């Protein structure tokens, strides 16, 4: 059960939120002023998440936030701010709040933001615990066992395909030129045509992208390749530059 600390001085809001959150299965502890909130945040427990009102007696929410981050605590924090308090939101985000909702907020929206932050956190924890696992979207690459899966199905890669995929994943969202790929994957002493990259990208696509609904490997014409998670807006662009083009995989120049 995720433990949530709610620091909120308005009793009615605190009571309603606590009930709603408990209904969703969270364990909720409330504090009604900045000082005891800060103390609870830093000393009382391991919190999965903190909901922090900005207008609080004794210590303001922003001061509480500042001191929590000063203490190097990385717990996700959502600020509860007044509708017209734009400067509060800005300085809150600058000081390390992960998100905010403005009052009066719909509980359903707050719940969605809580779930999203907790999900991000658990993914981060996972990769911290398993540094030998690379994950992109539904693709997993185990650097120890060299096992690769997508949507849970195993994918057989040759050693060069594996190294190429690993290189692209490690440079996710960066466009990589053929020359960069050659020197990192094949080695600086590689002698030959950089077209070998296009050939291997084609092999990789056959195995990693083609059988699945979304494409990870994108061609950047005239430059090289890019591995990124496809969003619905990037899908269209990829359709015109991707597998459907018969020239794809040859040197774009
Ligand atoms: Ca308040």
UniProtKB/TrEMBL annotation:
Keywords, comma-separated and alphabetical: DNA-binding, Phosphoprotein, Transcription, Transcription regulation, Two-component regulatory system
InterPro entries: CheY-like_superfamily, OmpR/PhoB-type_DNA-bd, Sig_transdc_resp-reg_receiver, WalR-like, WH-like_DNA-bd_sf
Naturally occurring in which organism (per UniProt): Paenibacillus alginolyticus
DNA-binding interval(s): 131-229
Region (Disordered): 231-253
Residue list for modification 4-aspartylphosphate: 53
Domain OmpR/PhoB-type stretches: 131-229
Name recorded for this polypeptide: Response regulator transcription factor
PROSITE patterns the UniProt entry points to: OMPR_PHOB, RESPONSE_REGULATORY
Segment forming the signal sequence: none
């Amino acid at each position: 059960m995720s433990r949530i600390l709610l620091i909120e001085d308005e009793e009615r809001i605190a009571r309603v939120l606590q009930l709603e959150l408990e209904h969703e299965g969270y364990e909720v502890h409330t504090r009604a002023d900045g000082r005891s909130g800060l103390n609870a945040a830093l000393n009382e427990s391991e919190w999965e998440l903190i909901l922090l009102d900005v207008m609080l007696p004794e210590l303001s929410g922003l001061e509480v936030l500042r001191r929590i981050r000063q203490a190097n605590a990385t717990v996700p924090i959502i600020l509860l701010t007044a509708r017209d308090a734009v400067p509060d939101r800005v300085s809150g985000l600058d000081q390390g709040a992960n998100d905010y909702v403005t009052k009066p907020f719909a509980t359903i929206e707050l719940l969605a933001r809580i779930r999203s932050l907790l999900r991000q956190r658990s993914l981060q924890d996972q990769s911290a615990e398993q540094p030998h696992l690379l994950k992109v979207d539904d693709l997993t690459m185990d650097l120890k066992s060299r096992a690769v899966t997508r949507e849970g199905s195993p994918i057989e890669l040759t050693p060069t395909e594996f190294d190429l995929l690993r290189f692209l994943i490690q440079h996710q969202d960066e466009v990589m030129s053929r020359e960069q790929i050659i020197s990192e994957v094949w080695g600086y002493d590689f002698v030959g045509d950089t077209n070998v990259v296009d050939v291997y990208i084609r092999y990789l696509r056959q195995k990693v992208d083609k059988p699945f609904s979304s494409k990870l490997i994108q061609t950047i014409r005239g430059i090289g390749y890019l591995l990124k998670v496809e969003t619905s807006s990037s899908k269209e662009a990829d359709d015109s530059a991707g597998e459907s083009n018969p020239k794809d995989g040859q040197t774009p120049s």
